[in-house]
Amino acid sequence: MRDGYIAGVPCWVDTSQPDPKAAVDFYGGLFGWQFENVMPAGSGGSYFIARLGGGDVAAVGSVPEQAPSVASWNTYVWVDSADEAATSVRGAGGNVVTEPFDVMDFGRMAVFTDPEGAAFCVWQAKQHKGAQVVNEPGSLNFNDLHARDLEGARSFYGSVFGWKTLALGPGMEVWTLPGYGDFLERDDPDLRQRMKDAQAPEGFEDVVATLNPIAEGQADAPHWGVTFAVDDADATAAKATELGGDVLVPPVDAPWVRLTVLRDPQGATFVASKFVPENAA
């Protein structure tokens, strides 16, 4: 299991829901997550930590007070200091939506938007070290920025987190953090060889997120999304429908994966993706 990240790496996701208990039923049925409400008794809201095999994978929480009652998935990036991150965000042209604050003894966080309005969070860990299980079926696989101004995004996230981009093909880019692969190889010495065997491009070991252009004419607002690994995209789409969700994009083959875009019953969207090495070409 993972035990922490390095600064600049997405480390956690949670979903804000008008009815958290209903969302617990949906995601528990879809991914097999087990939940624990970690909020103190008498709290006005809920925060259910989701676990797989005893490891933290994500969370389902109440919509924050004074926020629109809209379901969404939220991305958290590991930082050494949430306060310094707030200064960096302001300096790079972003906005501080929620000033840094302590989350009990779990950590310190803040909520920002980039210059195009895509919201994201930062996490300065204390007791909670982020997702312990990743890239396994039912766990976080990728965090995905959907943006219109790609050059502006490269400038902003490069300034705030030190990210660079790696082109995977026409219209396909990913975010990289130099040195991340070295960090991963300390616990996974065969990482680079496996990526070479899977025909991954040079530098793929440093990938921390994806950069997805919003095409002209698309109504989507710039935003951060999440992708979960699954062992069968088609079965996951069918199960989501059975549980009251919607299939926005039916299962489709893409480079290295077969994926589907889903929406939970309260409106939060996410991607379910199966790694398919045969789709590399």
Please describe the structure with a list of short key phrases separated by commas or semicolons:
281 residues, globular, 2 domains, 40% strand, single chain, alpha+beta, 2,3-Dihydroxybiphenyl 1,2-Dioxygenase, domain 1, eight-stranded mixed sheet
Q: What's the topology here?
A:
Elements: E1 10-17, H1 20-31, E2 34-37, E3 47-52, E4 55-62, E5 72-78, H2 82-91, E6 95-103, E7 107-113, E8 119-125, E9 140-147, H3 150-161, E10 164-169, E11 172-176, H4 180-185, H5 191-197, E12 207-213, E13 223-229, H6 233-242, E14 246-254, E15 257-263, E16 269-275
Parallel strand pairs: 1-4, 5-8, 9-12, 13-16
Antiparallel strand pairs: 1-5, 2-3, 3-4, 6-7, 7-8, 9-13, 10-11, 11-12, 14-15, 15-16
In short:
This protein is an alpha+beta fold and 281 residues long.
Oligomer: single chain
* Computed structural class: alpha+beta
How many distinct beta strands? 16
Could you name the ranges where pLDDT drops below 50 across 5 or more consecutive residues? none
Number of domains: 2
Radius of gyration: 18 Å
Biggest sheet character: 8 strands, mixed
Mean pLDDT: 94
Name of the CATH class of the largest domain: Alpha Beta
Per CATH, the superfamily of the largest domain is: 2,3-Dihydroxybiphenyl 1,2-Dioxygenase, domain 1
Spatially, the strands of the biggest sheet line up as: 2-3-4-1-5-8-7-6
Here the CATH topology of the largest domain equals 2,3-Dihydroxybiphenyl 1,2-Dioxygenase, domain 1
In percent, how helical is the residue content? 10-25%
The fraction of residues assigned to DSSP E strands is 35-45%
> What is the CA-CA span between the terminal residues?
31 Å
Instruction: Output the number of helix runs.
Output: 6
